[in-house]
Design brief:
37% of the residues lie in helices and 18% in strands. It has 6 helices and 5 strands; from the N terminus they run βαβαβαβαβαα. The longest helix is centred in the middle third of the chain and has 17 residues, at 92-108. The chain binds 4'-phosphopantetheine.
Length: 168
């Protein structure tokens, strides 16, 4: 069985992430979305919340699962028998960091390789940070995150009840 791991903070999952999930899932028997628990980035959503949101979003993808992990990604990949780590590349600015991590991971465990997918152009600008920033100020995030989680993001970002967006 060919297993891939798609790791990240997913704080929260965006349409850009979902695009990578859909495209990767087609190429693996099993795709595990790995949500980093011990995250130095001080996430807005708890690990459980991030996992729960992803669970809702991947309902229609039978070969995709989600779980949290802590510690080294390469150890998590090894424990799950994954041969590939998948990462999305939005722009050249992502590349330096991603290359360094991929090469380090491969040095630690040569049995696990990293596959890069270029983000679809319509999501090239998108990041979880941008989504949170827009939601905080009451902007419309409906194009940026899966519809199942729009309200959860607004709630967490404490959008005002009278905002023109965010509440159906
Ligand atoms: O969505 P992000 O924040 O860009 O994801 C980063 C992530 C989770 C892939 C990366 O921080 C990670 O793998 N962390 C686990 C610790 C680890 O293995 N670090 C790389 C070796 S130096």
């Amino acid at each position: 069985m060919k297993t891939g791991i798609y790791p990240g903070s997913f704080d929260p999952i965006t349409m850009g992430h979902l695009d990578i999930v859909k495209r990767s899932a087609k190429n693996f028997d099993r795709l595990i979305i790995g949500v980093l628990a011990n995250n130095a980035k001080n996430p807005l959503f708890t690990t459980e919340e991030r996992v729960a949101m992803i669970l809702e979003v991947i309902r229609d993808y039978p070969n995709v699962t989600v779980e949290s992990f802590s510690g080294l990604l390469i150890d998590f990949a090894d424990k799950r028998g994954a041969s590939f780590i998948i990462r999305g590349l939005r722009a050249v600015t992502d590349f330096d960091y991603e290359l360094q991590i991929a090469q380090t991971n491969r040095k630690v465990n040569p049995n696990v390789d990293t596959l890069f997918l270029t983000t679809s152009v319509e999501y090239a600008y998108l990041s979880s940070s941008i989504v949170k920033e827009i939601a905080r100020y009451g902007g419309d995030i409906r194009e940026f995150v899966p519809e199942e989680i729009v309200d959860k993001v607004y709630e967490k970002c404490r959008i005002r009840e009278d905002s023109s967006y965010g509440r159906k």
